[in-house]
Design goal:
The protein contains 18 helices and 25 strands. By secondary structure, it is of the alpha+beta class. Strands 1, 2, 3, 4, 5, 6, 7, 8 and 9 form a nine-stranded mixed β-sheet that branches.
Length: 582
């Protein structure tokens, strides 16, 4: 007998299901894309048990006739290709794989009715077994219900995460699709609670609604075209960033994608204006001639192949950089942290830097800097009398309201990044308090309510007890908000919203199975960043000196919490070499 045999149609479909539908979020994505291709003006999604137990997608699209309903559950049956060249694909779906794959791995029922039909019709598929089309009651449009996902492929089902994690992935997929189609109303319910709801609206309103109030206040428009390519949308000013790239929406020909060419272009465009490790918030919509684009290179159609990737990359980088340049004249109100804690000797608590309100610019020197005009510079520096006991020397000036210049006792030139340095001090202060048992908290005079996506709320609420040990006291406040009652005292008065968003991003990367203590340093680093003096804050002589002294007493002060250097030291030999004297 031959050792090679043909697999049954049921087995083939189940194998295909593992490629196309790897988790509930993928099923939701495929069904919503079908609804958008059908011209739906309103789409409602409901998830139970993370979409594993049940997921439902209802739309107001064109619906299907009984004959079309019978064909739609067969492999590679599609209404979306006008030819078989796969060159000019203008729809989101085109392979005819999603519904058969879902039907092979779950219990699928579809009820559909064209607007002119007298009644709806329904079809069911269970583990690959297809029923006959039957008359049914139903409104115009299509309603798809998927139950017991992967019941027919238990090996795949056991690799799914918890319902909460699967719901988070599904919500992220729906948000990306909602961002790509602002003219369509969306409603997402998770376990009976509304995760988000958006009416049909303009692109700007949809972007502002889904990115949040902080980002909405910092949006800069992008609108350019070149050689048949066009890009439009919005980018956030460098003052508003996130800890991960999840807040980047990239849409090509109405298709949300995570294409590496586009993500690299965004990173390059922002490279010189945001700190390493931070990610820009953007919503960009690219239009490319269909024949210049191959969308059939990834099972989930999330990556693309451009015929001329260099031209696409150049357009994205150039347009984003020009948008950022045009936005430099806009003032973004950044809350100033209040550094009013009393100093304690022999403590790693960050120095009590009382930051004065920013004064009118006077060159690049701080308010308390030495006036170099008049006496020779050498005489003024000598008057500071740097002590051999202080290896970071005595502060001379603050340059660009960001870097402290100091002179050491041996004449070396010392450069300090004030934000990176104070971030390390804050980090070590929190770490020291943790080793003693718990970080001291500072109750807020008025508890702050922070609006967040439901997935972020759930992640933070689930870790509330662990975060309380870090001095952050929070509780769930309705479906899409967190109530902040106290923050770590060592942070001063940070804005709760950016802090919670970054912590939610960090927790999302950790995964719910990871014990917070295993990633404690990463969590502390996120908190420390929000409790540190910012680049661009003008410091006085005493403040700069206090920062240098504190650095000398603090472990690991040579780098910030993210591994970047906080201090550079140039010896006499280094300086002479730079000037060609050696």
């Amino acid at each position: 007998m031959s050792r090679i045999r043909l697999l049954s149609e049921t087995t083939v479909n189940r194998i295909a299901a593992g490629e196309v539908i790897e988790r509930p979020a993928a099923a939701v994505k495929e069904l919503v894309e079908n609804a958008l291709d059908a011209g739906a003006g309103r789409i409602a999604i409901r998830l139970d048990g993370g979409g594993i137990d049940r997921l439902e997608v209802t739309d107001t699209g064109t619906g299907m006739t009984p004959d079309e309903l019978a064909l739609c559950v067969l492999r590679h049956a599609t209404s979306k290709l006008t030819d078989e060249a796969l060159v000019r694909i203008t729809t989101l779906g085109f392979r005819g794989e999603a519904l058969p794959s879902i039907g092979a791995a779950a219990r699928l029922s579809i009820t559909s009715r064209p607007p002119a039909a007298e009644h709806a019709c329904a079809i069911e598929v269970e583990g690959g077994a297809v029923s006959a089309v039957m008359p049914a009651a139903g409104a115009p449009g299509t309603r798809v219900v998927v139950r017991d996902l992967f019941f027919a492929t238990p090996a795949r089902r056991k690799f799914l995460k918890s319902p909460r994690t699967e719901a988070d992935h599904a919500e992220a997929a729906v948000r990306r699709l909602a961002m790509s189609a602002p003219g369509v109303a969306f409603r997402l319910e998770i376990d009976g609670r509304v995760a988000f709801e958006a009416p049909a609206q303009s692109r700007l309103d949809r972007v502002a609604a889904l990115l949040g109030a902080e980002a909405a206040a910092a949006l800069l428009p992008v609108n350019e075209s070149r050689d048949g390519l066009a890009i439009a949308g919005y980018v956030c000013s460098p003052a508003v960033t996130r800890a991960t790239a999840e807040a980047q929406t990239l849409v090509v020909n109405n298709r949300p994608v995570g294409d590496p060419v586009l993500r690299t272009a965004i990173r390059v465009a922002y490279r010189d204006v945001i700190a390493a490790g931070r990610h820009a918030m953007v919503a960009l919509y690219l239009e490319v001639p269909p024949e210049e684009l191959d969308v059939n290179v990834h099972p989930a159609k999330t990556e693309l192949r451009f015929r001329d990737p260099a031209a696409v990359r150049s357009l994205v980088i150039g347009s984003v950089r020009r948008a950022l340049g045009a936005g430099t004249g806009q003032v973004v109100a950044m809350p100033a942290p209040a550094w009013s804690r009393p100093a304690r000797p022999n403590s790693v608590t960050p120095p009590p830097l009382v930051l004065a309100p920013a004064a009118a610019p006077r060159g690049n020197l701080a308010e308390a800097q030495l006036a170099f005009a008049g006496a020779p510079a050498a005489r003024q520096i000598a008057a500071l009398e740097p002590s051999p006991d202080h290896p970071l020397g005595a502060p001379v000036a603050q340059v660009l309201d960001t870097y402290i210049i100091a002179v050491a006792a041996d004449g070396s030139l010392v450069l300090v990044d004030q934000h990176a340095a104070h971030e390390r001090l804050t980090h070590e202060a929190i770490r020291e308090q943790m080793t003693r048992g718990m970080v001291r908290s500072q109750p807020l005079l008025l508890p702050a309510v922070v609006d967040l996506p439901s997935g972020d709320v759930a992640r933070l609420a689930a870790r509330a007890a662990e975060l309380a040990r870090l001095g952050l006291e929070i509780e769930e406040f309705g479906a899409g908000a967190i109530l902040v009652r106290a923050v770590p005292a060592v942070l001063g008065s940070p804005e709760p919203a950016p802090l919670l968003r970054d912590l939610a991003d960090e927790l999302s990367e950790m995964g719910e199975q990871t014990v917070l203590s295993a990633r404690l340093d990463a969590i502390i680093a996120r908190m420390a960043c929000h409790g540190s003096i910012r680049a661009g804050r003008r410091l006085g002589q005493a403040e700069m000196s206090a920062l240098l002294r504190q650095m000398e007493e603090t472990p690991r002060a040579a780098t910030c919490s993210h591994g970047r250097p906080t201090v550079l030291k140039l010896s006499k030999a280094d300086i002479e070499k730079m000037f060609g004297r050696r």
